[in-house]
Amino acid sequence: MSDREDLGPCCACEKRGKSVRNVLMLNAKSPIRKRGWGCAVCHLPPDGALAVVCDACLTAKRELRFACRGYPGTDGRVHIKDLKGSHEHDMSKHPEEQELKSWGVEGEEERAT
Length: 113
What we know:
Blueprint: E1 20-29, E2 37-39, E3 44-54, H1 55-60, E4 66-68, E5 77-79, H2 95-102, H3 108-111
Antiparallel strand pairs: 1-3, 2-3, 4-5
């Protein structure tokens, strides 16, 4: 595996390798600004914390122990409990969610709870 493909250790079990390929967007701020997830639709800056997990931890829904400090493959990890601040979509700017609600379909906001 090249450095470009390596996302670093799993944020749940710390395993390394090709199975660490699942990127999770967390509802907290990334410790390093501008090195996380964002949203072009609701103008959310790329300051959201990320976590990466291996296939086994994703399937087992294992609890996260760590989050990415910034870019998953290069910036290291922080303890999940050390994340600060909230980073969430402005659902009023996501018309697709409103349309789902009008059809009685569960949207992202409901699935997260």
